[in-house]
């Protein structure tokens, strides 16, 4: 059964009115909203109802509260509708992308994970990148990324294959250790190489604990709660990249869009 706009909950209708004003430029990025009494009067609503809608807008990443300033519109408010595939360091950077600190750039045989998600044959050679994403000196996430085998990429996405090879050629590390030339994520390489290639992606989200090794890499105790995001990116029906992203407690908010 379809639900008409008239049957939306009042707080949702108010939320949409303010969100519309943000997206149409009435309140442009970086601007400060009017005070609560003034905004409530402009919208013809009560202050408690306005406060509830503003709280939802903050949680959804459109607004930020700054002490002594008030509520400001984020520089990069979330887009509506279907999102472009975005690198994690941009998605959770809240307008300031996180830095990618490479830990490992190597080639490995398929694991159960990559066999399942990349459909990799036994004994295939898959590029594996391990990186820490950091902001303001704090490690915010640990990423493990795998690319499909070169033979497959050469056939379905040769631009991505060439971009990966160029990135690793610029990397001076030895024995799999990553050097400063590889301070990007694999997904950012894929997105940059896909201006003429349509991508699709899906992700799964699981609650877990960091464990000892990942805790050491992120500078957190082993029993720190975390969110594990698994991600697969495809060209058509063919998977070209699979990833695991570990976000410990205290990491920046991760916007999630669900569509059907």
Walkthrough of the structure:
This protein is of the alpha+beta class. Helices cover 30% and strands 27% of the residues. It is built from nine helices and eight strands. The protein has helices spanning 10-23, 36-43, 47-59, 88-91, 112-118, 150-156, 158-169, 186-192, 212-218; strands at residues 63-66, 70-73, 99-108, 126-135, 138-147, 200-209, 225-235, 238-248. Strands 3-4-5-8-7-6 form a six-stranded antiparallel sheet, with helices on both faces. A two-stranded antiparallel sheet has the order 1-2. A hairpin with a 2-residue loop joins β7 (225-235) and β8. The chain is elongated, with a radius of gyration of 21 Å. The two termini are 15 Å apart. Residues 1-6 and 171-181 have low confidence and may be disordered.
Strand content: 25-35%
Structural class estimated from helices and strands = alpha+beta
Assembly classification: single chain
Poorly predicted parts: 1-6, 171-181
Helix content: 25-40%
**How many whole angstroms does the radius of gyration measure?**
21 Å
Secondary-structure element pattern, one letter each: HHHEEHEHEEHHHEHEE
- The end-to-end span amounts to 15 Å
Indicate the mean pLDDT.
Answer: 83
Global outline: elongated
Strand order of the largest sheet: 3-4-5-8-7-6
Number of DSSP E strands: 8
Report the total helices.
9
Major β-sheet profile: 6 strands, antiparallel
């Amino acid at each position: 059964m379809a639900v008409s706009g008239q049957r939306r909950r009042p707080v949702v209708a108010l939320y949409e009115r303010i969100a519309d004003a943000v997206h149409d430029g009435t309140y442009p990025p970086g601007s400060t909203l009017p005070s609560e009494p003034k905004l409530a009067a402009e919208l013809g609503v009560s202050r408690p109802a306005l406060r509830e809608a503003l709280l939802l807008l903050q949680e959804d990443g459109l607004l930020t509260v700054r002490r002594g300033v008030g509520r400001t519109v984020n520089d990069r408010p979330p887009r509506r509708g279907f999102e472009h595939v975005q690198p994690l360091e941009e998605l959770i950077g809240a307008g300031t992308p996180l830095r990618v600190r490479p830990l490992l750039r190597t080639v490995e045989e398929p694991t159960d994970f990559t066999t399942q998600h990349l459909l990799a044959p036994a004994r295939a050679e898959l590029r594996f990148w391990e990186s820490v994403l950091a902001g303001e000196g704090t490690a915010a996430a640990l990423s493990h990324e795998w690319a499909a085998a070169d033979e497959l990429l050469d056939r379905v996405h040769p631009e991505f294959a060439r971009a990966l090879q160029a990135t690793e050629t610029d990397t001076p590390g030895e024995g799999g250790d990553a050097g400063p030339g590889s301070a990007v994520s694999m997904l950012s390489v894929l997105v940059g190489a896909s201006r003429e290639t349509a991508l699709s992606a899906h992700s799964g989200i699981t609650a877990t604990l960091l464990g000892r090794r990942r805790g050491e890499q992120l500078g957190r105790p082993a029993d720190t709660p975390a969110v594990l995001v698994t991600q697969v990116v495809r060209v058509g029906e063919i998977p070209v990249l699979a990833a695991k992203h570990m976000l410990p407690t205290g990491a920046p908010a991760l916007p999630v869009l669900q569509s059907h």
